[in-house]
Amino acid sequence: MRTFVAPGMGTLLGAALLATALGGAAVAPALLAQSSAVDEIAKYRAALQDGNPAELWEARGEGIWKQKRGPKQATLEQCDIGLGPGVVKGAYARLPRYFADADRVMDLESRLLWCMATLQGFSDADSRKQLFGNGNDRKSDMEALVAYVTSESRGTPMNVGIAHPKEAEMYRVGERIFYFRGGPHDFGCVTCHGDDAKRIRLQELPNLTTKEGAQKAYTTWPAYRVSQGELRSFQWRLYDCFRQQRFPELIFGSDASIALTTFLARNANGAPFDAPAIKR
Amino acid sequence: MNARTVLAVTSVVLAVVGCSTAPSKPVVSSVEREETAAKASAMLKTSFKANGQAGLDRLDQDETQRACSALDGNAPSKEVAEKIEKLNLATLKYPAEDKLLGDWKNGEKIAQEGRGKQFSDDPAGPVGANCYACHQLAPQELSYGTIGPSLYQFAKLRGYGIETQRYAYGKIYNPDAYAACSNMPRFGHNGILTEQQMKDVTALLMDPASPVNK
Amino acid sequence: MADPMKIRANVTGDTTEVKVLMSHEMETGQRKDAQGKTIPAWFIQSVTATWNGNTVLAAQWGPAVSKNPFLSFKFKGGAKGDKVLITWVDNRGDKRTDEATIA
């Protein structure tokens, strides 16, 4: 069941509609009626686990990885995402990391843009044409690639290192960004993700300042978002958070996005990676 | 010693004895912290682009935002809190003649409205306060958040007089005047809501006829 | 050309369980785009599953079925190595057939 949210409606209202559709039959203001709505959503989520449409993206992504593309007509099979050229298994659990050839710390998405440019000859403009999918006729190759590569790390414990000085710096800068209050609403990541057991409307929020919260949150992205009808990556998650924080638009694969990802991914160390997952 | 310091010290100790815990953080000098904060600000400026009504100037912090960003989510010290509250108290602008109550029915619409100020929003479109994202208000609304305290029976519990009205309006206008580094947006000071909208939301909290006080 | 379906079929005793993930927009025809224009309906109208040439499931779907539908069903019969074929036809007349081997 998909909640039909009119264009322009925030996901918050969408979540509210979904919640009331499922469990809000009672009008009485009792606390019981309200907490049962949250339980119903949990049941809905459990029922969704079987038949995750993310598998369709994983299959398409594997095809794209192995396909000769771009001006150089090359596949991505020589792309080094940290464990050597073409080694996909377990690679995502070690990202972001420093790459000597680029002399910078990169997450998966920025590394894929790098490989598309250097191995396949794609221009930056072309590789950024449809980063976020928007329906079956506007599919995102990037999201498919992310689904495939991350699926090959399922079960691998998160293991993001900061031994290289640039990695350590990205972690520290990412932490500052996490606490950065700005924009007309004075929001920072910490505003919503700095406390235990809080929720926006009926959407529970992970406390990203604790190990448990970071582990639970980071290991379940990318995810098929039912309300979007799309597989969404961690770059998308950050982009959409900043949009709702009333910030300007986060540039895909930018340093700030990588720094923040380094901070959150490392905080999740030790937990087995469990994505692509499925979320509301 | 606050909770975060305890956690940091504990994790350093436990890391030494080889327990698995949060990644141990080296003790960082305040000079290093300032350098990192400067790096973060610079990095943000090159990592965002203007879109719609959201320009890069939104990344410029005022004194309150800068001070609150340095706290790592902890409560400010008494001195810092007093300084921030004084600074923000000075910005309060009340409607003329102490007429602070608008229409609570419109206030409820504003409390429900989640749009406004995002780069995806039409600048000419509705701007709400999105109160229900964080608060319980009218009991009939089950979909409420818990980032802020429940406001159910707001005036019923505090009184309906002019002093409570001024407190309610003031909180909406600039919550940092009362609670330094509050999670709540400064709806009036930051130009999110109009005076009429803030009066309507005040009425939602203060009007005896409002469902909030039933 | 629509994406291939992902089909899994497993037999336990005398019952085969089939799980199918289909890639389809399943547009209801009720939504409006940002300009206010109605987005045309585009959804799967019929689904058939066959085993060894026999129809084991025939379904008529409507716009209430969600995007990228997941179908799970059981039928009496089936043996390891047998083929199960799933076909869908949508309101535009597009169709897709994919097959799986019962494990």
Q: What's this, in brief?
A:
By secondary structure, chain A is mainly α.
List the helices and strands and how they pair.
The complex is a heterotrimer of chains A (280), B (214) and C (103).
Chain A: H1 11-23, H2 31-48, H3 54-65, E1 97-99, E2 104-106, H4 108-118, H5 124-127, H6 141-151, H7 165-178, H8 189-193, E3 198-200, E4 203-205, H9 211-218, E5 223-225, E6 230-232, H10 234-244, E7 249-250, H11 255-267, E8 277-279
Parallel strand pairs in A: 5-8
Antiparallel strand pairs in A: 1-2, 3-4, 5-6
Chain B: H1 3-16, H2 30-47, E1 48-49, H3 63-69, H4 78-89, H5 104-112, H6 154-158, H7 162-173, H8 195-206
Chain C: E1 6-12, E2 15-21, E3 44-51, E4 54-60, E5 70-76, E6 83-90, E7 95-101
Antiparallel strand pairs in C: 1-2, 2-5, 3-4, 3-6, 6-7
Question: Would you mind describing this structure in some detail?
Answer:
The complex is a heterotrimer of chains A (280), B (214) and C (103). In chain A, the strands form 3 sheets. A 3-stranded mixed β-sheet of chain A has the order 6-5-8. Chain A has a two-stranded antiparallel ribbon with strand order 1-2. Chain A has a two-stranded antiparallel sheet with strand order 3-4. Chain A has helices spanning 11-23, 31-48, 54-65, 108-118, 124-127, 141-151, 165-178, 189-193, 211-218, 234-244, 255-267; strands at residues 97-99, 104-106, 198-200, 203-205, 223-225, 230-232, 249-250, 277-279. In chain A, 43% of the residues lie in helices and 8% in strands. With 214 residues, chain B is mainly alpha-helical. Chain B is built from 8 helices and 1 strand; from the N terminus they run ααβαααααα. In chain B, helix 5 (104-112) crosses helix 8 (195-206) and helix 7 crosses helix 8. The longest helix of chain B is centred in the N-terminal third of the chain and has 18 residues, at 30-47. Chain C has no helices and 7 strands. Chain C starts with 5 loop residues before the first strand and ends with a strand. Classes of the chains: A mainly alpha (280), B mainly alpha (214), C mainly beta (103). Chains in contact: A-B, A-C. Strand 7 (249-250) of chain A pairs antiparallel with strand 1 (48-49) of chain B, so a sheet runs across the interface.
